[in-house]
Every structure is written in C-alpha cells, then in structure tokens.
Amino acid sequence: MTKPEIHENSYINREISWLQFNARVLQEASDECVPLIERLRFLGIFSNNLDEFFKVRYATVKRIVDAGKAGKSELGGIKANELLEIITQIVIKQQSESLEVLDCIHKRLEDEKIYVIDENQIDDFQHNFIKKYFIRKVSPALVTIILNDLVVLPNLKDSAAYLAVKMVMNDDKNQYALIEIPKSINRFIELPKQGDKSYIIMIDDLLRHCLGYIFNIFDYKSVSAHMIKITRDGELDFESDLSKSFIEKISDSVKHRQIGDPVRFVYDKTIDQDTLEYLMSKMGIDSTDSIIPGGRYHNRRDYMNFPSLGRTDLLYNKIEALPIKGLSLETSIFKAIEHKDYLLHAPYQTFSYIVKFLREAALDPQVKTLKITIYRLAQISHIASSLINAAINGKSVTVSIELQARFDEQANIDYAQQMEEEGINLVFGVKGLKVHSKMCVIEREEGKKLKRYGFISTGNFNESTAKIYTDYTLFTADQRILKDVNKIFSFFETNYKIFRYKHLITSPHYTKKAIFKLIDAEIQNVKNGKEGLIRLKMNSISSYNMVDKLYEASNAGVKIQMIVRGICCLIPGIKDMSENIEVISVIDKFLEHSRVYIFGNNGDPKVYISSADWMTRNIENRVEVSCPIYDEAIKQEIIENFNISWNDNVKARLLNASQENEYKVNNEEKVRSQFDMYSYYLKKLQH
C-alpha cells in the first residue's frame, strides 16, 4: 500500500491518515480470501470514500490555499499547498493500485465463467440484444451536450461521469461532445447467458458501441469516447433570505452543491491531448485542483451494486440477525425494560427492536410524549412512519432532525416536510452545532405519575445501515439517565441555557472536561501503585487536545488500547511519548461504527457507549451524548466484545508511525472478530 510522508512532529496529518484508512478498504478488495463479488464491492466503497474525501477534506484544504493562508497549525505541521500536492500524489498511486486490483478481479471472474466485456468483444447475438436495449431503455435517458466555442459549457454535475466524445469531421476539424452516463439505468447490464457463461457489459461500453446511433446526423471520419469526472466542493452555502424556511434554505443549498467549485478532475489517461486541453479550458480547471489521470472507467463507486448473478458462492454468507434474550418482538418492550436494561448490538442482533419500541409508543394510549433525535434516515424509513403514526394518534412528538447530515440531506428534508405536515414539532438543532447524538425518550402515564422509557445509541436510526454498521443501542427505564436525556431536549428548545447533567457526558459543554477527569483518575491510579487502564473504540481520533492527554497518560504509565477504524492522528509506540499506547484498526464485512470508552477504575470498570468520536467537531461543535452503562451484565458484555475485537488477528491492522497498514499476525488461534462476535451472541442465546 502507498506509504505517506511522515512529518517530524507528534501527529499524523488528518488527511493523510484518512487516505491510509481508505488504503485499508482497498486491502479488502485485494484480499484473495474475500469472496470475489464482495471484493468488487469493496472497490466501490474505496471509490465512493474517495469522492467524499475530495468533496469535503480536499475542498477544505483548497479553501485555505485560496484564502492565502499556510494552515500549518490546523493541518498538523504541513503547509496547505504542500498537503494538496501530497494528497494528489498518494491518490494517483492508490488509483493505480486500484486499477491493478480491478484487473486481477476481472481475471478471477473469468475463472468463474463471468465475463465483463467491452465494445470490442461483442458478438452478433449480443449486438442485437444491445441495439434493442439501447433504443428501448438507454437512448430516451441520454443527455448529450454538443460543444463549440460559442456556447458556454453548462455546469457538469458533481461526481457524475461523462464520456468526452471527439469526432474528426470530413474537413479534418474536431467536433467535441459530452454524454452524461445516465444514473437511472444500472451501470452493469447483464447480457443473455451463453451456456454456463455469464456476460456483463458496462453502460459506458454500451454507449461506445452505440456512438454511431447517437451521432448519426454528423458527417465524421472517426469518433472516440473517453470518460471524465469532476468533483465539486461539498460545502453547503446558505442564503440569508428571511422569507425562506430553514428546510427551504437547506434544500436550495443541496441543489447548489451540484455547481460548487471544482476540486478534482479525473480523466482516462488514453484521451487525446487536444481533447483534454479543450475540456480543461472549457471547465476552468486550474493548478490548485487535483488532476488525476485514471483508467478507462470512473465512478467505480457503482461497483458497490455489482450484480450477484445468483452466485451466492461469490458473496459473504448472509447472517440472520439474532433476537435478544429476554426481549420479545411479540410482547411489550416497555414491560421488559421496566425491570432491567437491554443492549442491542446491530447487525448481530435485529434492529427491529427499535422500530417495535416506536410502534408501541405510537399505539399505547398511556404514552403522552415522544422525543427523538434523527441524524440519517433511510430512504424508506419505518422510523419516520412510526413517528408520524404517533402524531396521528395524538401524542406530542418532538423530532430533532439534522438537515445538515452531509450527503444524506435530501432524505431528511423529504421526511421533515412530511413530519411537519402531520403536526410533529421539528427542532433543527442548535445554531452553530450539529445534533449528532442518538437518543429517544417517551413519557408514559402510569397512575398519577409520568414514567420515562427510552434508548440511547451509537448509531443512526436507519434500517439500511443497521444491516452493515456495528452499533450499540441501550434500552432503559433508568429514570436517572432519562432525566438527563429530557434535559438535552430542553436545551434544544432553550439553548441560551446551559444545563447540568448528573449521568450523561455531553458535547459541546462537558465532554472534554469529563473525559480528562476520567483519564486523570487512571493516571492517579498509577501514581498510587495501582493499574491504570484505558480501552477505547471509535471511528476517528483527530483532536490534538485528546491526543496530547492520551500521551500524558501513556507517559504516566497508563496502559492504553485503542481500536480506531478510520482517522488516527495519534502516533502510538513512540518512546517517551506514546510507548504504552497500542492501536489497531479492523476492516471487514461490516463497518465498525460503535464508540466505546472503558476506564479500568482500579478493577471496577467505568463503561460508556457514545455517539462521539474524539474529533474537534464532536467535542466542541456538535451535540453528542456518552452514556454510562450501569447494568453489570451489559457492562461485562461490552468488555467481552472489546476483547474479541482486540484479539482479532485476521482483519486487524496495526496503526503506527509507519502507516503501512500491516496486519496484526500472531501464532495464536485465529480470531476474526466480526465472525466470532456473531458466534458469541449465538452462544448467549443457548445459555
């Protein structure tokens, strides 16, 4: 994998660390032990990640350069203009590696009698099928732009793929055109099987085959087509028009993103130089944009949806999400959690319990209020329909919905409008803060009192991602915790007041101070001759304040174990700085998403589940919640889960100064944590 430049300071640059996380995703696409079609899908994830990286992180660094600033303090000691160049060089190498991986996978597919063919490999039988398919389905969906010097090039859509067409006319002049690859048609078209052989053609190559039909009104000698893609700045810009609602402003801003400033231009490196120069001048591509020579195909994120062709042997075995012992989908969840807390660990256990809780709240005549935070809703959301159902049944429903959940704004906007129409009280967060916490509280009339029930989660209340993201959700009727949850909803309504919380750790006001206090307690334990232990699981750590505090704990002798999926600006294992810190990253079938903090506390561990990573935005610029686990059995379950992940020696990579993503290998019995986690929950059901 690509080795980045390491700078002589205490931190790995955030952007470089992120690119090395994406290199771990590319490792999964390279891994011969991963089922073949899953490898293609990891290649799609790698490409999709890269698109979002350029829209957000590269665009942010580019804005620093455009503002004439160096940005060294924000960027871990690297000047912004130098970082842009480093990023481009790493990405060019990773793109080259990804093309090699794709070629390898295509050869392996052929061993399985699956052939991905291009326009030069089409036989007569396939030609007739393609011709009919083009006329019937593709041609009506095409947007073709004829280019000339007199017409201003329309804004090309962010991350859409285009075929750049060059026609050499009979008078030897060049005529250029662009064909937008239609998103309404599956990128991969299954051709009729021939015996036991399966054939697939990408729509890109189908279009190349059909150029004669598209441009039959032109008198040309030759025609060629090469793919290009432009990525635009993904920042949302807001209007100050007071007559527009917040929903309207967000919606307009999402649409405007399609014409944001370009930050990356990717092209087929075999394109003619005159065509490339013509397009770059027309599009206003300049030297501060990342210009990436690529392969024949772009928008490889579409490989996430590569057809399975009925070949279940080339896919991961599907797991059946398990029930939670003692909690039933057929009886009242409220009655169950009245007596004890329950923990849901998705996707190993079924997400249906969350939907069941909300459905029960919507129907129960004794439920008076329902409050919930929403960050990313599924395209078809049973969560949203349950909330609407509750409002229709006369409950007082409050939904704090985050309309700025990046790249998922549209689904949230659509559901927010539906909820508003049904009389749900919508709260659009707090000015200057994203609401990233995941929590719900209901109030139920029992006798003459209102009793609270609810849940707190590390993950989004999203049915789609719950099948592939690992997350914890705590169901509880603990009035201490739920009183704090209720206070957070009060903060949404009156955010000029800063509330105090006895049990929850909340951002932006208390997380840093509370975590530092917990770390200091472990440092003090070491000073008192006792063990100091901190175990952390999170998606990313990039806050230099948090990194420095962990360095301080390490130097004091506290043993620190960290499982970090993505960005890790901390450098472990450095003498006199971080020699007591070990960090691994697990990339496998599921996306590790849960956040867990465990503090040894001299043998009586303090355990928290959280919505917050240790990034500056999570600690200072978002509403986040870390929830203590008081139930001893659940506390032990989370610690055992951490042990399983920590002992992974199949899919765990070592994160260290070299940033080479070496696998954690030892001679002990093989532990593949995600597979072993499922076995763990199967065994719990049997006892």
From TrEMBL:
Record PTM: An intermediate of this reaction is the autophosphorylated ppk in which a phosphate is covalently linked to a histidine residue through a N-P bond.
Reactions catalysed: [phosphate](n) + ATP = [phosphate](n+1) + ADP
Active site annotation, chain numbering: H436
Sections of the chain in a coiled coil: none
Keyword terms, alphabetized: ATP-binding, Kinase, Magnesium, Metal-binding, Nucleotide-binding, Phosphoprotein, Transferase
Segments forming domain Polyphosphate kinase C-terminal: 332-497, 504-674
All residue ranges annotated as the Polyphosphate kinase middle domain in the record: 126-306
Database matches in Pfam families: PP_kinase (PF02503), PP_kinase_C (PF13090), PP_kinase_C_1 (PF17941), PP_kinase_N (PF13089)
Source species, domain of life: Bacteria
Species of the source: Mariniflexile jejuense
GO molecular function, one term: polyphosphate kinase activity
Enzyme class: transferase
UniProt-annotated binding residues for Mg(2+): R376, R406
Stated name of the protein: Polyphosphate kinase
Record-stated family: Belongs to the polyphosphate kinase 1 (PPK1) family.
CDD domains (UniProt xref): PLDc_EcPPK1_C1_like (cd09164), PLDc_EcPPK1_C2_like (cd09167)
